[in-house]
């Protein structure tokens, strides 16, 4: 039985696609069979973040319009044999697909004889048709936000729409791009602050890590490597499959002691 | 429709409000300098209350006009300077904050308009 997870945020640029790529790859590394579906028709990017942009032949719109079979549009990731990508069209717009057609595609993926454990949908920004398509068949939602006023406000709006769609109590929050140095100075909202405002289960927090930029440059998701963000994403994957994983200390290696010794130095001066 | 006006209150005259704010600020300054994260949190809490209340600017305008109509029966008010907004306030029963409709209604003349 496959679980369909939509990764959404409302606001653009908070890291939905990066999160989708890393969670999809992470779940596959944990031995799950995963297909990632890019629903951002016209502005697709999941293929680039995964480094699979040169392998696209057919796409989601072709499947919907009957130009190809679903298997023909799916790309296998050679680095990770259990991972598949179903890209969308770049030269069409969101109205090329309806929620009903999206549900039909998802039903076909669910009926796959080998069986996908997870179907992960990368949702476009906004609350219009693209969003409606993405959430239509979802069993569960991961809401991505950053600790900023605009992103949190949009996340709250998205949660309201997800609630109305019947996904209440199936929503988890990912706080992305958190900078602990700023949180410690009182210049950025903490994970607790965000949780307090949105009243949503926080399934994980990902630090603002320059390794993410490097990984995207290369087209290789960093989930599972020993960078702070790579570990944070892997922890989220483990929580998704039901493991209990304690929260990572986002202050970095020896963060507390470093801070402690810096206080000490300051006192001596 | 959700009942969002259960804690409706009416605040008249500006100076009182100002005074309250100043007291609050000086007390806070005594303890610590407020970081911008606290400012963000406070702003968001207010913002989400009005977002969640789903009160469109049109509805707010209708409420405002009805308030002007009712109050004008009893006193002369400055309809131009009237300001209403949905915010949150501490609940009397101590169970957190609840939505509240605040109205700032400048009074021009306490005598009834038709007297």
Question: Which key terms come to mind for this protein?
Answer:
heterodimer; A: 269 residues; alpha/beta; Rossmann fold; 12 helices; globular; B: 115 residues; alpha+beta; three-stranded mixed sheet; two-stranded antiparallel sheet; 5 strands; 45% helix; elongated; disordered N terminus
Question: Would you mind describing this structure in some detail?
Answer:
The complex is a heterodimer of chains A (269) and B (115). Chain A has 269 residues and is α/β, with parallel strands linked by helices. Chain A has 12 helices and 8 strands. Chain A has an 8-stranded mixed beta sheet, sandwiched between helices. In chain A, helix 7 links the parallel strand 6 (140-145) and strand 7 (171-178). Chain A is globular. Chain A starts with a strand and ends with a helix. A 3-stranded mixed beta sheet of chain B has the order 1-4-3. Chain B has one domain (9-109). Chain B contains 3 helices and 5 strands. In chain B, a hairpin with a 6-residue loop joins strand 3 and strand 4 (97-105). Chain B starts with 8 loop residues before the first strand and ends in a 6-residue tail after the last strand. Mean pLDDT of chain B is 71; it is low at 1-24. Chains A and B meet through helix 7, helix 8 and helix 9 of A and helix 2 of B.
Percent of residues in helices of chain A: 40-55%
Q: Give the overall pLDDT of chain A as a whole number.
A: 93
Tally of DSSP helical segments of chain B: 3
Number of strands of chain B: 5
In sequence order, what are the helices and strands of chain A, one letter per element?
EHEHHHEEHEHEHEHHEHHH
Helix content of chain B: 40-55%
Largest sheet of chain A: 8 strands, mixed
CATH topology of chain A: Rossmann fold
**N/C terminus separation of chain B:** 38 Å
How many separate domains make up the residues of chain B?
1
What number of domains of chain A?
A: 1
Q: Which structural class do the helices and strands of chain B define?
A: alpha+beta
């Amino acid at each position: 039985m496959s679980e369909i997870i939509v990764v959404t945020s409302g606001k653009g640029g908070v890291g939905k696609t990066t999160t989708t790529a890393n969670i999809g790859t992470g779940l596959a590394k944990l031995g799950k069979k995963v297909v990632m579906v890019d629903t951002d028709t016209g502005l697709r990017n999941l293929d680039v973040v995964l480094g699979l942009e040169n392998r696209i032949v057919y796409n989601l719109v072709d499947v919907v319009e009957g130009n190809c079979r679903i298997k023909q549009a799916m790309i296998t990731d050679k680095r990770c044999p259990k991972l598949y990508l179903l890209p969308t069209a770049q030269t069409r717009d969101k109205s090329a697909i309806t929620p009903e057609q999206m549900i039909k595609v998802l039903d076909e993926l669910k009926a796959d004889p080998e069986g996908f454990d997870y179907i992960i949908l990368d949702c476009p920004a906004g609350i219009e048709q693209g969003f409606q398509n993405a959430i239509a068949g979802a069993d569960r939602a991961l809401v991505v936000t950053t600790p900023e006023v605009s992103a949190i406000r949009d996340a709250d709006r998205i949660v309201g729409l997800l609630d109305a769609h019947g996904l209440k109590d199936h929503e988890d929050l990912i706080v992305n791009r958190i900078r602990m140095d700023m949180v410690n100075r009182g210049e950025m909202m903490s994970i607790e602050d965000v949780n307090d405002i949105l009243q949503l289960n926080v399934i994980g927090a990902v630090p603002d890590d320059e390794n993410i930029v490097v990984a995207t440059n290369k087209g290789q998701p960093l989930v599972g490597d020993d960078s702070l963000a790579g570990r944070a994403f892997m922890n989220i994957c483990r929580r998704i499959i039901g493991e209990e994983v304690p929260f990572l200390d986002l202050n970095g290696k020896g963060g507390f002691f470093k801070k402690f010794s810096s206080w000490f130095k300051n006192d001596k001066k | 429709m959700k009942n969002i006006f259960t804690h409706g209150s009416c605040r008249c005259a500006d100076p009182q409000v100002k005074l309250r704010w100043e007291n609050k600020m000086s007390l806070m300054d005594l303890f610590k300098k407020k970081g911008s994260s606290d400012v963000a949190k406070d702003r968001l809490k207010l913002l989400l209350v009005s977002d969640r209340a789903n009160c469109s600017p049109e509805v707010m305008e209708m409420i405002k006009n009805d308030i002007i109509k009712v109050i004008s029966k009893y006193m002369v008010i400055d309809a131009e300077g009237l300001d209403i907004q949905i915010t949150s306030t501490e609940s009397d029963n101590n169970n957190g904050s609840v939505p509240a409709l605040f109205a700032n209604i400048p009074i021009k003349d306490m005598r009834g308009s038709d007297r």
